[in-house]
Design a protein that fits this description.
heterodimer, A: eight-stranded parallel beta barrel, two-stranded antiparallel ribbon, B: 11 helices
Chain lengths: 286, 259
Amino acid sequence: MHHPGPIPARAGIGLRHQHYRDVIDSLPTVGWLEVHSENYFGGGRPLAFLEAARAHYPLSLHGVGLSLGTDGPLDRTHLARIKALIARLQPALVSEHVSWSIAGGVYLNDLLPLPYTEEALQVICGHVRETQDFVGRQILVENPSSYLQFVHSTIPEWEFVAEISRRTGCGLLFDVNNVYVSACNHGFDAQAYVEAMPRAAVQEIHLAGHAVRAIGDATLRIDDHGSAVCEAVWQLYAAALRRLGPVPTLIEWDSNVPELPVLVAEAITAERFLAQAAETRDAAAA
Amino acid sequence: MLPLRDLQGAMAASVLQGTDAPLAPVVRADGIAVDGRLQVYRNNTFSSLTAALKDSFPVVCQLVDERFFGYAAQEYIRANPPLAPRLAEYGGDVAAFLGGFEPVRHLAYLPDVARLEWAVNAAYHAADAATLDPARIAAVPQERYPVLTFTGHPSVQLFASEFPVDRIWQAHQPGGDLEGKIDLSSGGCRLLIDRHDQDIRFLTLDAAGFALAAALCGGHPLQEAYEKAAAIDGAFDLIAALSTHLARGTFADFADSAA
């Protein structure tokens, strides 16, 4: 089977089951697709739809269940299924998260925050190395969004994330919405986060919408991927592209999933930012 | 300092059981109470798992209404949290849970509807496989037929209920007829469920046909399977039944066990 790739410095969309038919029938003009790996472990109908779509687009596999940050053994069954899916779909990128989801054998189906300590750094770096060795290729890890901080954290999050890449050779998936959400929730400077990202390591960017929830007199921004990208996140994205140059960018939308054209329109907006970043880069090189 | 493993255990307990106190000393409040912050994670876990259960049990959800389903899902999640990060595999105990769930005790058919939805889910997610070409069976000498064994297609699920849950299920599909009344005492159903060209199919069987299909998919030789069916229906038409299964693609493969 023909497998388009690698991922171009264009905007892609997260392919969700609501859009299988529409994507295959209309083949929207987006640069690439990303899917959640776990949805295709069973094969069957989801995988058949994905393979039909995959024949037309470069693909990225984004895992949500490996739980790299859990202090305990990685699930080898899970790793084996990821490896088999990689062999079958030949994705251009494979990614996971700087977070944890499993404790005591129970899967919480959420991306929970780590304390930013040397102990946690060693745990997650060990698991990133183990994953890369097992699947035989580099993976990317994504910076998290969070709603709390631990009192014993000693390392700023941006240094923690960059250090994982430095120690393991993994790439980074820079989620601009997550940075914005966490910066608002915890009162840090989002721009400083952007400046701390090692340019060569960032191979993908994520954009999504988030919700604002009142909690008592305060507010928390909740990373629910349930709306359009907000203006402040577009501005932070522009700042990220000024530092990083054009990087493949994904629009994620996971709750209140809209009609496909709404998602494609978000991707087109991202492509305008990418085109500008490419011009700036070319002008600087000229 | 709380070791990472203990911190993660405490946070899982907070999410699933609501025990926030052990985390209070290690979480920065910063203007929002610690339990308010932890509540966000609780919401994430419960709402996303409830949505996953709703995806797998849409008919149960319609039958009890969405609010009650949300309540039942919460109780289920607390008692049976997922043990693997693969949500397509989550929900295998829902039928048993509903069978013992006091508030729905009066809905005797509900656990069977859940069981049917789980079978549909299993067929949907089963591995792909080619179906057995009937010409391969036609090429086998007839005297070998009694010892032939078959491998069911990976998507095949055999389902039986004393309630007409197949009609309940059909009525609650998009475009289904919700107006017509279904008499719960009008008899049960026996179904062979599978996936073909990515579509889920139901084949309704009688008791003898069901016994045959169950025996064949269970690896019993054709002669034995036939005897199970004939014990129920002395006039059972084996050729017709086998032709139906071969034409539909119930089997992925066969073996001539004595060859």
